[in-house]
Amino acid sequence: MTESKRVIVSPKSAPVENNWWVHMILVTVFMIAVIPVLWVVMTAFMTKTQTQVMPPEIFFKPSFNAFGVIVRQFGMLTFMAHSIIIAVASTFFSVTIGTFCAYALARFSFPGKEDVSFWILTNRMMPAVAVILPIFMIFQTFGLLDTFVGIIFLYTAMQLPFVVWMLKGYFEDIPREFEEVALVDGDTWLGAFRKVVLPLMRPSITAASIFVLILSWNEYAFALFLTGTNTRTLPPSVVTFTVSTEVSFDLLGAAAVIIAGPILLFVVFVQKQFVRGLSMGMVR
């Protein structure tokens, strides 16, 4: 008959963590980051007179006048429709093309493979400001200014390197044996990719799509110079409220809420898929 041994840990030997200062730092950083955002949201529900009061009013009667003005007079809903079309289309094309490109780089060997990989990576190193002028001239030459085709093509090319390098690592984490079994059963490489690899990559592809959608939605520099009345998106529309002789802070706040609100709600709804896709490959 075996006797169970009870291990008693002395209170003196138990580690005592007194990390209240960590929580204080986190709360301070949180407040510094949140207060400006909260103030912008509050400004959106103020009147023009209330935004100019000094000291600022903390408690006030909310007003939706600014939202009505930017929707009726400045066409913010039209800009939102343009943003949705451009962001969704560029996300679809960049993720679709990038998935096949990442699979080829992860699975096949061909001459110049490393050079191609490095060339794709260097496309993300170039700052947007450095290439706006030549891209503007190219768009002007081919008649692509203020067109959906031009801006979608540009956003697809911009986000493609990010998609390729993000998915390439996930493809490399999937054992080749899974595809080899499918090949033994008579499938082609494309069949093995569609039936075996693609279902395993669905979380990662979803995460990449979310990333690209957010980047395309928030892109400002190229949208400011390459879009016009027919394709103007939400981010550059903010300039409308700042180029006049007097800045309308209530309209700026309402525009900021309309720009950030949809993408924020989208991230909240897909955060589980986003985290799942990012964590794929961390544990085999």
TrEMBL record:
It is found in: Cell membrane. Keywords: Cell membrane, Membrane, Transmembrane, Transmembrane helix, Transport. One of its GO terms (cellular component) is plasma membrane. GO terms for biological process: transmembrane transport. Gene3D superfamilies: MetI-like. The chain crosses the membrane at residues 20-46, 81-106, 118-142, 148-167, 204-227, 247-270. The keyword Hydrolase does not apply. It is a multi-pass membrane protein. The keyword Coiled coil does not apply. Residues 80-270 form the ABC transmembrane type-1 domain. Belongs to the binding-protein-dependent transport system permease family. This is Carbohydrate ABC transporter membrane protein 2 (CUT1 family).
